[in-house]
Amino acid sequence: MSFLEVSDLHVRLAEFQLAGVSLSLDRSDYLTIIGPTGAGKTIFIEALVGFWEPDQGRVRLDGRDITHELPERRHIGIVYQDYALMPHMTVFRNIAYGLKKHKGPDLEDNVRQMAASLHIDHLLHRKPATLSGGEQQRVALARALIAEPRLLLMDEPFSALDRQTRREARVLLKNAVRERGTTVVHITHDLDDAWAFADKLAVFKGGRMLQFGSLHDVLARPRSQFIADFVGACLIRGTVVSTAKDDTRIDIGGVQLASLDAAAPGDEVDVAIRHEVITLQKERPVSANGFNVVPAVLGHVMPEGPAFLVDMHVNGAGLQALVSHDTLQRLPSREGDPMYALIPRQHVKIVAAQHPSQQPVQEKTRAHTK
């Protein structure tokens, strides 16, 4: 039996509806939820903690149905992006507040140990207004973890932090939840949080969960164009022209791609390729064992943090590659110039196969990763 089981969860709030969400987590799993603003991510975790009464569906935690239990009986911790610290209390008292119903003779030792694990033991005498954003975030996390929640929910806890502070906070959080074996559900707009923490990944949009699975599976095999755009992958429609052991050939507008995935000749398939697995070269390589060598035409180039997202055209199909500054300097410099994309066969993922008699349905909405 799964540690957390959510079955067909519906929550109606005025014009918005969270509809039909079902997922399960094992103990100590780390689930990251991504999706655009207004997707229903916060309403989902607030339904888990008991702030919203479901109109339909069930929530079971550690073998017990908690669908209609009061929040204070669920033993679930929640950390919001504004941290919700008590401004009139010291850091010590804010952390101890998490034990308000479980105070004992070891209260002071417990608070100090928790503070030390998050590197804030030197701040216990301070008030929240005197702390940096990163320090406030760690106080909020300490307050949630000290109660040893069965489930920890976090709503964009790093959104107000600068890049360096966010990196440091990720390391501390990862160590803290790993040491305690805490099961976590973490909402974020930053895909780097998923890379850093997640075992499982869910994508929400418009009150529905579009895809849920292991981090690797969702990132490598997005089920729609919307999800592909959101997680940094290309999704291309093609037709299977031949199959052999570990060698499926897919026609993409007159160019063939080889994949290790299986499909049947004649199938219409969606092929997913992550941006970072594509290598670009100005000249055709002499040898490229294990790679698809695809003639392409340079499109526009956009900075993407320290890297660059390069658009290219392959016989009418669009591809995108994430490359370093050094690689960019070795490529053609003008839109329309020819070049070559090298794509490893093992990273050409067949997401969905449609037999010729079936009509594929494909979502065309675009989104940004941040």
Describe the model.
This protein has 370 residues and is α+β, with helices and mostly antiparallel strands. It folds into 2 domains: 214 residues, P-loop containing nucleotide triphosphate hydrolases (Rossmann fold, 3-Layer(aba) Sandwich); 121 residues, OB fold (Dihydrolipoamide Acetyltransferase, E2P), CATH 2.40.50.100. Helices cover 24% and strands 36% of the residues. A 6-stranded mixed sheet has the order 6-7-8-3-9-10, with helices on both faces. A 5-stranded antiparallel sheet has the order 13-12-11-14-20. Strands 15-19-16-17-18 form a 5-stranded antiparallel sheet. α3 runs parallel beside α5 and α5 runs parallel beside α6. The chain starts with a strand and ends in a 16-residue tail after the last strand. The relative contact order is 0.12.
Distance between the termini: 35 Å
Q: Low-confidence parts lasting 5 or more residues at pLDDT below 50?
A: 359-370
Tell me the strand order in the biggest sheet. Answer: 6-7-8-3-9-10
Average pLDDT score = 91
User: Do you know the CATH architecture of the largest domain?
Assistant: 3-Layer(aba) Sandwich
H/E series: EEEHEEHEHHHEHEHEEHHEEEEEEEEHEE
**CATH homology group of the largest domain:** P-loop containing nucleotide triphosphate hydrolases
Q: Which term fits the overall shape?
A: globular
